[in-house]
Amino acid sequence: MTSKQIDEPARPIRRRPKNRRAQIAAESAAAFGAHGYHGVSMDDIARRVDISSAALYRHFPSKYALFRAELLRLSGLALTAVELPSEAAEWSPRERLDHVLDAIIGSTIANRPTVALARWERRYLEPADFAEFTGQFAAAIATVRDLIRDVRPELDGYDRAIRAVSVFAVASSIGDHHASLSAKTLAQLLKATGWALVDADLRGEPAAASPARRSTTPPQTFKHELLLRKAVELFHERGYPNVSMEEIATAADLSAASAVYRYYRGKSDLLAAAFRRAADRMSVAITSAVGTADSPAEALGALIDLYVAGSFDERALTFVYYAEFSHVDQADRVTLRHLQQLIITEWVKLLTEARPELSAGEARILVHAAFSLVVDLGRVFGDDGICPQDTVVRLLQTVTLGRPLPRR
With contact defined as beta carbons under 8 Å apart, do 252 and 230 qualify? Predict the structure, then answer.
């Protein structure tokens, strides 16, 4: 043996893991959860797994295949969570629903890093896959709706459906933020909120009919307003990455994409401007509500009224705010995050004053749940009248305050 052979370190032997395919799926899911479908490439995933792109393609033919696998895994987990064991036949209706709530919440917490994919990125599934995905979630929601019927047989089908959707929405809202609690405390909080939604009295005198709204189409002299509205509508319908400046210009009746740049620096600037408007609206609402209320609970109730009304008026913007935030330029994102945190902190302060038994961390979880519940209800029920504005208000009161407030 030569001295050179003695001095050279032995080369490490790299063995292919037996579970390489599962490892790739897990790493790609984490990447999609952090950056969204359009924010991740196959090269990114290969680097995360420490393999070549060529080796990655031997396991999965495309980025879409990985994305599809994760979303269908999540919808399959929803179906599994609502299954009852054979011994459940001997349980009471509340025991059966309690078991399913535990399973839904436990599965959601275990998959928190990718839960947001199912909420905001589902529209990028191809039609057949989208139908399978939504069909599985619809079946899971239908099962919870039937379990609620057994607990509260006096409720009609629409009321049970609203509550079932709300249970899933509150649980999955933890995927939209990074507020943290211990897994045990988080599970207990989400479960208590789920039961509050099931048990709440959402009836009462209906709210007075809203006066007819004037057209929100801005005058042609306010072209920057029209551009903003049309851009948000397109982002909502097709997703930010799939919308071009040319399409925004056409929607706003401009002759060319270059005309947009007289009003906005680019597509991301349009998105940031829309988000700043949403943040300003919520900031003004806080000042108004706190200044006129006699108690923290009343102030929070007033804030909920204003938030829901604004969300109904600008459904597209409310959805886009959650789904497309990652596409804002970094500098604008920092500013918007700061504004968002200030707003949430004010809501949390009011909630902990109204419910002293809650910690600030628990209150923050509930505030986020209330915000995202509006979006999910709008997405599921849309404008078909099943979930009117007054009902949404009472649902948000239940999520935050634990019960609907008395009618004012």
Answer: yes
